[in-house]
## 1
Amino acid sequence: QVQLVQTGGGSVQAGGSLRLSCQAFGRAPNSDLMGWFRQAPGREREFVATSTAFATNIYYSDSVKGRFTLSRDNTKATIDLEMDNLKPEDTAVYYCAAGWSPLNYKDRTYYNYWGQGTQVTVSS
């Protein structure tokens, strides 16, 4: 069993920055995938960014590429998401996730464990 605990998030004006952190507890802290999804009201949960084991590959959605940076520290079983130049459309609940299928890194159904969710609100 893996438990993911999230910290960070909050409210910021457009153009500002926020940081999210996620720590994994339990089995397999070096899971093949650890990453972030987000869900805005009335919308499906969507892929944001993910890291393969040992951060060999880090993938971003087109909407956040160049603005968000994911980092992974397997010694601490943590991943962080630095979010810069935030836009109102980034407003959502952000979820940390862990999975074991690198070929399906964008598909939320291939992530087995989820954090509790953290609200990020960006005002214009």
## 2
Amino acid sequence: QVQLVESGGGLVQAGGSLRLSCAASGRTFSIYAMGWFRQAPGKEREFVAALSWSGVSIYYADSVKDRFTISRDNAKNTVYLQMNSLKPEDTAVYYCAGRRQSGDYNDYSLYGYWGQGTQVTVSS
């Protein structure tokens, strides 16, 4: 099994920045890719960004492209999501997720490992 623990959420004004971290432990050698998803109240969970564990492949949702950056530090088994130019519509619970197989990076059903989520609130 793989355990994922997110941190770094909080309250920020529009235009501000936050960096989320996701620390993985356990059978991390089984991880093929990591992703970030978010869920706002009353809305479905949506894809934000993902990268292969090797870092070769990186994907972003159109809504966050050019504002968010996903990265990883394999030595620390940690994935980051740097969020800049935050907007009120970015407000959501952000979840870190891991998967063991290839496939569509934005398909949350393919991710078998999930963190507990961290709240990001962007005020206008």
